[in-house]
Amino acid sequence: MSDARAVDQVAETVRMLSVAPSPAFWVAVIAYTAASAALLFVLAGHQRFRALAIGLVAVAFVAHGVDIGWRGTQHVHPAQSVREAIGFLAFIITGGYLLASTRYRLTLGGVVVMPVSLVLLLAARLTPAGDGLEDLSSLGRIHISLATIGVGVFALASALSAIYLVEERALRKKQFDALAFKDKGAPLESLDKLAHRLIWVGFPIFTVALVLGAVWVSKLGESLDRLEYPLAGVTWVSYAILLVMRQVYGWRGRRAAKLTLTGFVAALAVLMIYLVRRMVA
Question: CA of 197: how far to CAs of 161, 194, 203, in Å?
Fold first, then answer.
């Protein structure tokens, strides 16, 4: 009797986790953790760990991608739910950081990005899946996919903006021995321009996702008075204002970086609300 109960408990755990984590998931977790530590060593002045750190980021990215592919073979796809989309978001963030690192030294950003990707991956894989979304149509899947890509691009722009603010503050206070300058990172102008280009890429994608989401919710007969909907609006308005003000009034630097972070915080809050709601469903 006890054996049967144990089997039932295991089955229930697997159901709540959607599918059991793959071996590649655990490789990614270890690689993300090791990459975070290695990047900290590089930031502390141990430049000999740079190649190792970037290599570990690459391992984490590949293992993460393999995990997503393996879940696809189990009929669990990135657009199936917000929970799965969060795992895909972490994959996009890591890939974007890895790509940007081929051109700029972004060690300070990596110290932030790697733990964030790790936490998002853990949340996507180890939190309860809740009840299935039986009414998730093709429209819903397209909405989730585009929203995830848009937020992923915004996340990369926000990481660059955060680096900009840290470096700009240290420069303004003439703290040339601060961590921001120990790694000889990207110039402030380059950070500002790259963040702006990323927002130009992410904004139309997020706009289409927002419109499709409104249509999808309308077809489901749900009201738009949930907290996540105005928060998504805050994200869109923040980046719309930023693009217009930069084009018309030449907004750059600190103001642009702070508005970029404001929009991303709102977008991240939307994802967390969806995730928590699914967990307690």
Answer: 12, 5, 10
